[in-house]
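Below is how a single chain appears once it has passed through the pipeline. First comes the sequence as given, then the structure the pipeline wrote out for it. We keep one example in the README because the format questions we get most often are answered faster by looking than by reading.
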Amino acid sequence: MKSASAWTSALSYTTQGRTEKRNWIPRVVHPCIFKGVAGCSTNYSAIQYSKPRCFPRIHTPDIPPHIPSWVERTGSGIQFWYSIASSADGTKLAACTFGDYIYISTDSGLTWAPRNTNRTWISIASSADGTKLAACAQGSYIHTSTDSGVTWTSRQTDAFRNWYSIASSADGTKLVACVYGGQIYTSTDSGVTWAPRDSNRNWTSTTSSSDGTKLAAVVSGGRIYTSTDSGVTWAPRDSNRNWNSIASSADGTKLVACVYGGQIYTSTDSGVTWTPRNSNRNWFSVTSSADGTKLASCVLGEYLYTSADSGVTWVPAQTDVGRQWRSVTSSADGMKLAAGGINTNIWTYS
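Resulting structure:
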């Protein structure tokens, strides 16, 4: 606020149609106001001159800091949400339902629009900008979109396969998908053509680095497998466990994987070695920020859990009631999350 001396310069006022300027020395009046002076109210401080004048107070309200919280998005509808994917900024979300449509949101989950047709959708992946999407359905095909989910094209239509998981590079060009009881498939042209990789296994989840070079996948009742050549060759890691989900940092160095009925495991060397974390739970899905520092996981029939130290410690979230969580996804910075489950609405965190 200006001092009284700063206001001693010429001030103008209008009276009877004439505008005059005078050097008046002001007297600051208590904010309790001139009564009866036009334009004055309890929202103004008054500065009095030889003619009463009122000036708006420069008011800076005390705005409380934003506290991130979980919000139930009723606009999504109660569905059997099986998988959810996010753009890097968390604005565009894509979620698929088992036996219903794919749903798209362009406002961080506030509103949702159904796309494609009813299928047994089980997994969906997104490019960093949310423009290119890829989804797969059990006993069906892979489907891709290049317009944020408005239109879709069927891929790998030579045979029905028990697709179980799909992942994408940041630009949406390189894709990796796995078949439960079958092989892993990779694509380098946004899903137009595919090449089978490795052997038939009970693959349950796959993930990709941002450039699509480093891949990782898990087998139910088997091991973790990693690739450093975009899926051409694969190396087995860790031990046989009931692996259910895996996620990667952008550079593919930090990985997090969960065991259904077991623990969460983290790796900081692209999957060569693994460290068990937290307790035995029905972990169902994991997600990671781009730097691998912020992680989130969901437990079927229990809560969501988050970690801010690359999985060393975990904090439960949404502890009001246990839900049948199936999938969770994260923005690149880890500050926006979205999750869905069986007979639930989608929930978002920001």
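The two ends are 35 Å apart (CA to CA).

See the next section for the split statistics.
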